[in-house]
Design goal:
Layout: H1 5-16, H2 25-34, E1 37-49, E2 61-62, H3 64-87, E3 92-101, E4 111-122, E5 135-136, H4 141-149, E6 152-165, H5 171-177, H6 185-208, E7 213-222, E8 230-242, H7 250-258
Parallel strand pairs: 3-5
Antiparallel strand pairs: 1-4, 2-6, 3-4, 6-8, 7-8
Length: about 260
Protein backbone atom coordinates (compact mmCIF):
# COMPACT_ATOMS: atom_id res chain seq x y z
CA UNK A 1 0.00 0.00 0.00
CA UNK A 2 1.64 3.25 -1.16
CA UNK A 3 1.47 6.56 0.68
CA UNK A 4 -1.74 8.46 -0.17
CA UNK A 5 -1.77 11.92 -1.73
CA UNK A 6 -3.04 13.48 1.51
CA UNK A 7 -0.33 11.75 3.56
CA UNK A 8 2.40 12.76 1.13
CA UNK A 9 1.46 16.43 1.63
CA UNK A 10 2.01 16.09 5.38
CA UNK A 11 5.20 14.06 5.01
CA UNK A 12 6.62 16.45 2.41
CA UNK A 13 6.44 19.21 5.02
CA UNK A 14 8.51 16.99 7.31
CA UNK A 15 11.03 16.50 4.51
CA UNK A 16 11.57 20.24 4.31
CA UNK A 17 12.27 22.00 7.58
CA UNK A 18 9.45 21.10 9.98
CA UNK A 19 9.54 17.76 11.75
CA UNK A 20 6.68 16.36 13.83
CA UNK A 21 6.96 13.85 16.67
CA UNK A 22 5.32 12.55 19.81
CA UNK A 23 8.60 12.74 21.72
CA UNK A 24 8.69 14.53 25.04
CA UNK A 25 11.16 17.39 25.43
CA UNK A 26 13.53 15.16 27.43
CA UNK A 27 13.34 12.38 24.82
CA UNK A 28 13.98 14.80 21.97
CA UNK A 29 17.06 16.29 23.64
CA UNK A 30 18.52 12.90 24.59
CA UNK A 31 18.09 11.54 21.05
CA UNK A 32 19.61 14.71 19.61
CA UNK A 33 22.64 14.13 21.85
CA UNK A 34 23.02 10.67 20.28
CA UNK A 35 22.88 12.21 16.82
CA UNK A 36 19.37 10.91 16.05
CA UNK A 37 17.42 13.34 13.86
CA UNK A 38 13.61 13.22 14.24
CA UNK A 39 12.02 13.75 10.84
CA UNK A 40 8.32 13.01 11.21
CA UNK A 41 5.47 11.32 13.01
CA UNK A 42 4.50 8.20 11.06
CA UNK A 43 1.47 6.01 11.43
CA UNK A 44 -0.45 3.15 9.91
CA UNK A 45 -3.95 1.80 10.43
CA UNK A 46 -6.10 -1.18 9.57
CA UNK A 47 -9.81 -1.63 10.32
CA UNK A 48 -10.38 -5.35 10.65
CA UNK A 49 -13.46 -7.53 11.00
CA UNK A 50 -13.01 -10.00 13.86
CA UNK A 51 -15.52 -12.81 13.95
CA UNK A 52 -15.68 -15.50 16.63
CA UNK A 53 -15.44 -19.10 15.50
CA UNK A 54 -17.24 -21.94 17.25
CA UNK A 55 -15.44 -23.36 20.26
CA UNK A 56 -16.01 -26.49 22.29
CA UNK A 57 -17.56 -25.62 25.64
CA UNK A 58 -15.47 -28.08 27.66
CA UNK A 59 -12.14 -27.80 25.80
CA UNK A 60 -9.31 -25.32 26.32
CA UNK A 61 -7.66 -24.60 22.97
CA UNK A 62 -6.17 -21.90 20.79
CA UNK A 63 -8.49 -20.26 18.28
CA UNK A 64 -5.92 -20.13 15.50
CA UNK A 65 -8.14 -18.23 13.06
CA UNK A 66 -8.46 -15.34 15.52
CA UNK A 67 -4.77 -15.49 16.46
CA UNK A 68 -3.85 -15.06 12.81
CA UNK A 69 -6.43 -12.30 12.29
CA UNK A 70 -5.06 -10.24 15.19
CA UNK A 71 -1.50 -10.71 13.94
CA UNK A 72 -2.41 -9.83 10.34
CA UNK A 73 -4.28 -6.68 11.41
CA UNK A 74 -1.33 -5.43 13.48
CA UNK A 75 1.11 -6.33 10.70
CA UNK A 76 -0.90 -4.32 8.16
CA UNK A 77 -0.89 -1.26 10.43
CA UNK A 78 2.86 -1.62 11.07
CA UNK A 79 3.69 -2.11 7.39
CA UNK A 80 1.81 1.10 6.48
CA UNK A 81 3.66 2.99 9.19
CA UNK A 82 6.93 1.59 7.78
CA UNK A 83 5.92 2.78 4.31
CA UNK A 84 5.60 6.34 5.62
CA UNK A 85 9.03 6.02 7.27
CA UNK A 86 10.58 4.85 3.98
CA UNK A 87 8.96 7.79 2.20
CA UNK A 88 10.78 10.09 4.62
CA UNK A 89 14.07 8.25 4.14
CA UNK A 90 14.13 7.23 7.80
CA UNK A 91 16.59 4.79 9.35
CA UNK A 92 14.26 3.85 12.18
CA UNK A 93 11.09 4.44 14.17
CA UNK A 94 11.29 5.13 17.90
CA UNK A 95 8.70 5.39 20.69
CA UNK A 96 6.41 3.16 18.67
CA UNK A 97 3.07 2.08 20.09
CA UNK A 98 0.37 -0.34 18.98
CA UNK A 99 -3.22 0.47 19.92
CA UNK A 100 -6.63 -0.97 19.19
CA UNK A 101 -9.64 1.31 18.89
CA UNK A 102 -12.82 1.58 16.89
CA UNK A 103 -15.51 2.02 19.53
CA UNK A 104 -15.11 5.79 19.43
CA UNK A 105 -15.84 5.69 15.71
CA UNK A 106 -19.26 4.16 16.25
CA UNK A 107 -18.27 1.04 14.37
CA UNK A 108 -20.13 -2.23 14.82
CA UNK A 109 -18.75 -4.38 17.64
CA UNK A 110 -17.08 -6.88 15.31
CA UNK A 111 -14.84 -4.18 13.80
CA UNK A 112 -11.64 -2.91 15.40
CA UNK A 113 -9.11 -0.31 14.27
CA UNK A 114 -5.48 -1.34 14.69
CA UNK A 115 -3.11 1.64 14.90
CA UNK A 116 0.69 1.85 14.77
CA UNK A 117 2.34 5.21 15.57
CA UNK A 118 5.93 6.31 16.12
CA UNK A 119 8.56 8.94 15.35
CA UNK A 120 10.73 8.38 12.29
CA UNK A 121 14.41 9.22 12.78
CA UNK A 122 17.67 9.38 10.85
CA UNK A 123 20.80 7.98 12.43
CA UNK A 124 24.25 9.60 12.48
CA UNK A 125 26.00 9.13 9.14
CA UNK A 126 28.40 6.52 10.46
CA UNK A 127 25.56 4.28 11.59
CA UNK A 128 23.34 4.31 8.54
CA UNK A 129 22.70 1.08 6.66
CA UNK A 130 21.47 1.85 3.13
CA UNK A 131 19.01 -0.62 1.65
CA UNK A 132 17.82 -2.05 4.96
CA UNK A 133 14.34 -1.58 6.38
CA UNK A 134 14.02 1.01 9.15
CA UNK A 135 14.37 -0.45 12.63
CA UNK A 136 11.38 -0.24 14.98
CA UNK A 137 11.34 0.14 18.75
CA UNK A 138 8.78 0.84 21.45
CA UNK A 139 11.43 2.01 23.93
CA UNK A 140 11.10 5.54 25.22
CA UNK A 141 13.83 8.09 24.54
CA UNK A 142 15.50 7.64 27.92
CA UNK A 143 15.79 3.85 27.56
CA UNK A 144 16.99 4.13 23.98
CA UNK A 145 19.67 6.59 25.11
CA UNK A 146 20.92 4.18 27.80
CA UNK A 147 20.85 1.25 25.37
CA UNK A 148 22.84 3.17 22.78
CA UNK A 149 25.43 4.32 25.32
CA UNK A 150 25.91 0.73 26.49
CA UNK A 151 26.74 -0.38 22.93
CA UNK A 152 23.44 -1.95 21.90
CA UNK A 153 21.11 -1.09 19.04
CA UNK A 154 17.40 -1.81 18.48
CA UNK A 155 16.62 -4.23 15.67
CA UNK A 156 12.85 -4.36 15.55
CA UNK A 157 9.70 -4.44 17.62
CA UNK A 158 8.75 -8.11 17.98
CA UNK A 159 5.49 -9.65 19.11
CA UNK A 160 3.74 -12.91 19.64
CA UNK A 161 0.04 -13.47 20.16
CA UNK A 162 -2.39 -16.21 21.04
CA UNK A 163 -6.18 -16.10 21.17
CA UNK A 164 -7.28 -18.85 23.51
CA UNK A 165 -10.55 -20.38 24.64
CA UNK A 166 -10.58 -21.47 28.29
CA UNK A 167 -12.94 -24.38 28.94
CA UNK A 168 -16.04 -23.83 31.05
CA UNK A 169 -16.45 -25.87 34.19
CA UNK A 170 -18.98 -28.66 34.10
CA UNK A 171 -21.77 -28.85 36.68
CA UNK A 172 -20.02 -31.50 38.76
CA UNK A 173 -16.73 -29.56 38.73
CA UNK A 174 -18.53 -26.43 39.89
CA UNK A 175 -20.17 -28.34 42.73
CA UNK A 176 -16.83 -29.76 43.93
CA UNK A 177 -15.24 -26.31 44.23
CA UNK A 178 -18.24 -24.39 45.55
CA UNK A 179 -17.37 -22.58 48.77
CA UNK A 180 -13.76 -23.84 48.75
CA UNK A 181 -10.40 -22.09 48.46
CA UNK A 182 -8.80 -24.26 45.81
CA UNK A 183 -6.70 -23.81 42.68
CA UNK A 184 -8.65 -24.01 39.43
CA UNK A 185 -6.32 -26.31 37.53
CA UNK A 186 -8.04 -25.99 34.15
CA UNK A 187 -7.76 -22.17 34.23
CA UNK A 188 -4.15 -22.24 35.48
CA UNK A 189 -3.00 -24.65 32.79
CA UNK A 190 -4.87 -22.91 29.96
CA UNK A 191 -3.60 -19.43 30.83
CA UNK A 192 -0.04 -20.70 31.33
CA UNK A 193 -0.11 -22.47 27.96
CA UNK A 194 -1.54 -19.44 26.12
CA UNK A 195 1.10 -17.09 27.56
CA UNK A 196 3.87 -19.53 26.68
CA UNK A 197 2.67 -19.67 23.07
CA UNK A 198 2.65 -15.85 22.85
CA UNK A 199 6.13 -15.48 24.37
CA UNK A 200 7.61 -18.28 22.25
CA UNK A 201 6.32 -16.65 19.07
CA UNK A 202 7.82 -13.31 20.12
CA UNK A 203 11.19 -14.99 20.65
CA UNK A 204 10.97 -16.68 17.25
CA UNK A 205 10.44 -13.28 15.60
CA UNK A 206 13.53 -11.95 17.38
CA UNK A 207 15.63 -14.89 16.20
CA UNK A 208 14.52 -14.36 12.60
CA UNK A 209 15.52 -10.70 12.92
CA UNK A 210 19.03 -11.66 14.01
CA UNK A 211 18.67 -10.25 17.52
CA UNK A 212 20.55 -11.45 20.58
CA UNK A 213 18.00 -10.32 23.15
CA UNK A 214 14.64 -8.68 23.85
CA UNK A 215 14.15 -5.78 26.27
CA UNK A 216 11.08 -4.03 27.61
CA UNK A 217 8.86 -7.08 27.18
CA UNK A 218 5.23 -6.60 28.18
CA UNK A 219 2.77 -9.50 28.30
CA UNK A 220 -0.88 -8.44 28.33
CA UNK A 221 -4.28 -10.06 28.06
CA UNK A 222 -7.65 -8.81 26.85
CA UNK A 223 -11.05 -10.29 26.09
CA UNK A 224 -12.23 -7.64 23.62
CA UNK A 225 -15.86 -8.26 22.56
CA UNK A 226 -15.57 -12.02 22.47
CA UNK A 227 -17.05 -14.67 24.71
CA UNK A 228 -15.98 -14.15 28.33
CA UNK A 229 -13.94 -17.36 28.14
CA UNK A 230 -11.91 -16.16 25.14
CA UNK A 231 -8.78 -14.06 25.69
CA UNK A 232 -5.90 -12.71 23.63
CA UNK A 233 -2.46 -13.00 25.19
CA UNK A 234 0.02 -10.61 23.57
CA UNK A 235 3.76 -10.40 24.18
CA UNK A 236 5.61 -7.34 22.81
CA UNK A 237 9.20 -6.12 23.20
CA UNK A 238 12.16 -4.56 21.39
CA UNK A 239 14.70 -6.97 19.92
CA UNK A 240 18.30 -5.76 20.24
CA UNK A 241 21.86 -6.75 19.39
CA UNK A 242 25.34 -5.50 20.18
CA UNK A 243 26.59 -2.98 17.66
CA UNK A 244 29.72 -4.06 15.79
CA UNK A 245 32.74 -2.23 17.11
CA UNK A 246 30.66 -0.33 19.68
CA UNK A 247 32.55 0.77 22.78
CA UNK A 248 30.21 1.15 25.79
CA UNK A 249 30.22 4.50 27.54
CA UNK A 250 31.77 3.51 30.90
CA UNK A 251 30.05 6.32 32.79
CA UNK A 252 26.66 5.27 31.45
CA UNK A 253 27.37 1.60 32.15
CA UNK A 254 28.35 2.41 35.73
CA UNK A 255 25.21 4.52 36.20
CA UNK A 256 23.05 1.69 34.86
CA UNK A 257 24.65 -0.85 37.21
CA UNK A 258 24.23 1.41 40.24
CA UNK A 259 20.58 2.08 39.39
CA UNK A 260 19.84 -1.61 38.81
Amino acid sequence: MSVSKETSVRLDENKKDLFSSDLSVSEFLLLEELGYEPIGLVMGTSVYHLGLTNTRWTKSEEITVLTQAMYSARHLAMSRMMEEARYLGADGIVGMRLDIGGQHLGLESSLSEFIAVGTAVRLPKGERHPGKDPFTSDLNGQDLYKLHRAGYRPVSLVMGGCVYHIAHQGFMQSMKTMGKNVEMDNYTQAIYHARELAMTRMQEEAKRAGATGIVGTVVSESSRNWDNHVFEFLSVGTAIRKAEGAVPDLHTSLTLSLNG
